[in-house]
Amino acid sequence: MMTNRGLIILAGVIWFGVGIMLNAFAIRWFGQLTRAEIIWAISLGIIIGVLKVIFIFKKLIDKNILRIKKINGKAPWWKFQRPGAYYLIFGMMALGIFLRTTGIVAKKYLAPVYIGVGLALALGSIFYFKAALNLKK
Length: 137
Known about the structure:
mainly alpha
């Protein structure tokens, strides 16, 4: 069982870890790309990541932090996300694995998406850590 602060920190750690993992995938693909494709992937990935965290993830994070703060007492670790979010997470993971392993989409096109989503997740984790620090005991 975890406190509200613990759940918020766990959410931040998971968001950060997944963000790093997605960027690690993209970086491994750099060996298959030209210098111009790498620059394009990084540049587009940064734009995607910043826009995604500002316009999509920030709202989700704020709602999740508010939901966690409303939990009375300790809760199981899996409460760091709302139950319905697990379906979305599973779907995104399945799509990512499918696209990565089938070769339907070239790595030069997947790399900016992975960089962007990974950057957005890593940046989004900062909001969780900040909320955990500001949470009153």
